[in-house]
Each structure stands twice: as C-alpha cells, then as structure tokens.
Request: fold
Amino acid sequence: MTVLELTSNRHNPGIDPLLNAWGWEIAVYLFLGGLVAGSLILGGYRVLKSPRRQAGESYPWGPLLGVLLLSLGMGALFLDLGHKLSVGRLYLTFQPTSPMSWGAWILLLVYPAMLAAALLYPPERVPFGNAPLARVRAWSEWVHARPRLVQGIGIANLAGGAALGLYTGVLLGTLGARPLWNSAILGPLFLISGMSTAAAVLHLLSMVGANAKQDSFGDLLLSGLVRLLNKDTGKSSMVRYDQSFMTIELALIGLWMIGLLTSTTAHRAAAALLLSGAWAPQFWSLVVLTGLVAPLVLQHFEFIGRIRHTVIPPLLVLFGGFFLRFIVVGAGQGSHW
Amino acid sequence: MARFAMVIDTALCVGCSDCVVACKTENDVPEGFCRDWIEEEVRGTFPTVQLTIHSSRCNHCSSPPCVSCCPTGASHVHEGGVVLVDHGKCIGCKACIEACPYDARFSHPDGYADKCTFCIHRVEKGLLPACVAVCPTHCMHFGDLDDPESEVTQLVRSRPYHVLTPEAGTQPNVFYLTRGR
Reply:
C-alpha cells in the first residue's frame, strides 16, 4: 500500500490544524448583504414598475429596513476585522483586482440609492417629527415631477442590488486557494439566494401585517410592506417570486457541484466535503432539505389551497439562506490543494 | 531588477528547526506563532518508503493571490519580488490568509496579517535571511534568480527541483532541490 504522510510543526492559531480565519461574522455579513441586495432589486423593480405611490402604501419602510439590516451586516464585518481602527483605509484607495475593495465601495454607494427610494414614497404620517415629513413630501413631489430621475433611482436600486448580491459570491469565488469557492457560480448563487431571502422577509412580514390596523407605528410599517410590490397581491406575489428563486437556486447548486466534480482532484475533494464528507450532514439537512426543498413543497401546497398559509416556509427560507453562507464559508476553508 | 529566491536542498535538511528559532528571534514573532516551519513527508510503498524533510515559509510568489485580493494595498510586491505587508495599511480582513494556498500567513495578535519577509531588512544590508544564515547543514540558499552567476540560479540549473503546489498557478520562488542530478 502506498503511503503519504505529512507532518508539520506549524501551529498558527486560526490556521492549524484547519483554516478557520473567517467565522460566523462573515456568514452573517454575507447573509444580510445578500438579503439587502435582494430587497434592493425587488424595490428597484417596484420603483420602475409603479413610480407613483399607491393609496395606503408606506413603501419607505422597505428600504429603511434594508439600511438597518445592511448596517447590522457591516457591523458583523467590522467585528471580524483584526485592525478595526484602520477600517477607513478601505476608502483611501480602490484596488481593482480586489473584490473586497469593490464591495467596500458598492456598500457605500447602495446607501444613498436605498435612502432615495425610501424618500420617494414618504409615509402618510410618522409617530413624531411631522414637520420634517412635510419637507420630505415636498422633495418627493419635486422628484416625481421628473420621471427620468425616478427612473434613475429605480435603476440605481436594481444595479446596486445586483452588484451587492453578486459581489458577496464573487468575493469567495475569486479565492482560488480554496477549491470549494473557486467557482463563478457562487456569484449568481448568492445573488439568487439573496433575492429568495428578501422575498421571504417580505412574505413573512406580509403574513404578520395582513390584518394590521393602521393606528400604530408597527402596524403601519407591516401593512406598508404588504403592498411593497403589488398593491393587492402582496402575499401571493411573494410566494411566486420565492418559488422561482428557490428553484433557480437548487439548479445553481447542482451546476456548482457539476463544475467541481468535473475539475481537478482538489475540486472533486472539495465537492465531496459537501456531498458526502464532513460537511454533508449539515449541507443536506439544513440547506437543501430544510432551506429549499421543504419550503418549495409547503408553498406549493399552500398555493394550490391544500394547506393554509403559515409563516413556516419563509422562516425556513431564511434559515436555509443563512446556513448556505455559514456552511460554504466553513467548508470552503476546509478545502485545499 | 532582482528576483529574490530561496533554494532548499531536501537531501541535506534534517529538520532541526534552527531556522524556525532564528526567524522567531530575528523577527520577534509572537509566542505561539511561526513564520517558517518544518514539514516531513513520508511517501512510498513499504518497505521502499522515503522521508523528505524541508523548511517551509511564504513562497513570495511571482503571481501572488494574497496581493491581488488585498482591499487596501497593504499586501504588496516589494523590490526584488518580495511579498510584504504594510502593517499600517492592513485592516485585518484576513482575505490574504484565505487566498494563500500554502497557509503561510497568520493574523498577528496586533491584528494585521503577518508572514515571512525573506528578512528583507537584513537582505537590504547585504546579509542573508536569518533562517539561511543559521542553517547548520547549509541546506538553504538565498539569492537573485535573475543573476545568472548567483548560487541559487546555478543550483536550480544543475539540480532537479520542485515547487509547492504548482497547480495553484502562483509561481512560487522557493525551490526544493531533490536527490540526484
């Protein structure tokens, strides 16, 4: 029997025995970044499709929720930095070969796009500060009087969302030292997964807010989100969108695995980590079955009226979306040449 | 322009770890970390097995993925092709650690990415890297690969050698001489 035995006296923390430099912070950031990217795309589509505000609609809460979630994600990324006080260095340069540099600038550019979309549809009322709201309304009318500007805001949201969603996958995909990540499929996969989780959040909130009263701030927020894409078909729209996104996501995972399995020995070993190796139980149970197949089946039966609508499918989609990132980050670091 | 390289004769290396200790002392490497290390490889079919020992470190690749992925320009290629990290520019994102197929980098307790520098502070004074200078079997050699008369050029011309993980496409500049001519 041929033997190959390697022994090393290297013992660097975070590197040995298995690379573990990126932890849960990166998975949280990739998950929230993808979710916000999805909501930017859906929101941008909404702006282009129906520039005028619908009666009773409180659209700004969608983009404002995006601002909050993206800030949380960036907070997780900040926690992961070893040299936190130097974070401003990201914005003193642009490194065209570094996806992380692209991402830093994309993150900075999507904030104004989200805020512009939020200000496009000011709410009827807010719990406090109605005087500033009047100024926002005046600004909103000024923008609405210029259709090309409204169109520009919609396109900025669509493009910003696509760039943000793709970048979260490209960031990993360009790290050729980790064969599991070294695939161009990761960009589209994380983008579609982000759109799926964004649709799930809106679906979830629509379920909670469907019967909301309009006399409280919280209910106002939820009922506004119900009509995010279409005034009277919020819930079923979200289910249809989510079903499409999850089907594409399953197909992309399949293509990703085919790409790896037909490549080098290192890439085949990387695919085996997910399909039959150390990460297989988590991957199959948490991502494929719980996060994709189960919500697809449940939502299908909900859609044809066999079972009643519950919050379970969108919750499962969110659960699967997070664990997709968590497992890809963890397993990728376990793959090597 | 110089292209610094290291040549390690695996037929002479005995794995004494002198190079590891010299590096830690010279570069004040924090306790629990190392910039270079010893690897042993047993390969073959019993009873015809072969033990190979060698000292490993950053390969100062000519196509360094750690440099291209750095978002701040902290990881850069210095004169002579030496890959360095500007500690003041490094934000500690660890992308370079993920990008290195040799796992040669680590996160310094002060937060920045750290690794072998080929002892550039010594080389610029005309000295050899600390690990090369102390090697008791003289298995390690350092020099300019672009100089046809240099010792490292002569060695890679005259002896069979290999580099680590050539399939990763990084074009490493640490060469391992193997037995025979």
